[in-house]
What does this fold into?
Amino acid sequence: MKRVLLIIGGGIAAYKSLELIRRLRERDVAVRVVMTEAAQRFITPLAAGAIAGERVFTDLFDQAQEFDVGHIRLARECDLVVVAPATADFMAKAAHGLANDLASAVLLATARPILFAPAMNPQMWANAATRRNLETLQARGLSFVGPNEGEMAESGERGVGRMAEPEQIRDAVFAALSDGPLKGKRALVTAGPTIEAIDPVRFLSNRSSGKQGYAIAAALAQLGADVTLVSGPTNLSAPVGVKRVNVESAREMLAASEAALPLDVAVMVAAVADWRPMKAAKGKIKKDAAGIPAIALQENPDILATLSKLGKKRPKLVIGFAAETDHVEEHARAKIAKKGCDWIVANDVSGDVMGGAENTVILITKDKAEAWPRMAKEGVARKLAVEIAAVLDAKSPGRK
Ligand SMILES: Cc1cc2nc3c(=O)[nH]c(=O)nc-3n(C[C@H](O)[C@H](O)[C@H](O)COP(=O)(O)O)c2cc1C
It folds into this structure.
């Protein structure tokens, strides 16, 4: 039986955590609860304990609690730590590694995966301090579910900050606990655009939203892979269970991709700028300086070709995306030959694919070209993840 350690923070959404406990237990997940002092102002340990069917832990310095299980055992005796609701305060404490109460001490002491379900007023969520804490926690590989957009329970305000619904958190818990076919496999996904500086305030970029790459990272993680998502600037939050590394330029993306080695699979979805300005000006180029400036360009490194030609360190499976507007299959085949990758997922971007919710792709391998029907980017991602799992499973020696 899987065991979740649920940390309940002091937010109004704490009442929803009681429902979460119920949803987990009805699927045979054991839930042990830790509550912050503030959480106990909103719901009682009695209620949480009654639904969890176990005693609830609240105090780092209570001798009986510490001798009974203790904060180190709480941190160890679980498969996953879930923080719901994760308050702005708790995110700040976690980002800084504070450990001055039972909940934060357990979080610091655990080596298990951690899933946060933030809940707070939209202004608190948008605050630069919270943004920074979120980035810090995501960079450490912690996962997030929500927050959602909607009406706030106490103020009636609308905005992003509502805690994810209990069913949504439960699904994220199952994704994080998954023993899928890609368990133990290391995957890299690149996503989003790159931006290439002209000067400190101007850049060259493209219209990639990152949606398809993020969906693929999520789908691989759901099948149990250990996923690093190297992402150019996007408005998306990292999928559950995925380690996100933020980059800007093509050269940074290449360095971050190489740092993710060794890999079983690399899926290169990012729209990498082919060229960058020869020289990024140190100061802002003045409008009235010397007429209209000519921007000389030079070629960027080819990340797909570099990873495909790594020799011994080459990932077992290297997949490129090809955005084409005409002769889609023909150009994609030429790309496989030129780059040395294994598969190309060719998409026709002559319509509204860039930034849109759907995609029409052709999966091209050395021996097949399979046109998939138009579907949501999440659907393309799940289908591709299943294809990847089939190939990696077959390539793993000693597996049935
Ligand atoms: C009525 C009320 C509702 C609150 N709701 C939230 C909330 O939804 N999210 C949040 O981050 N803080 C909220 N707070 C503030 C937290 O309770 C406060 O920051 C507390 O110190 C959090 O402690 P903890 O992180 O240890 O649980 C609320 C406070 C009150 C009085």
Summary: Residues 9-13, 36, 38-39, 87-90, 119-120, 124, 154 surround flavin mononucleotide (CB under 6 Å). The chain has a mean pLDDT of 91.
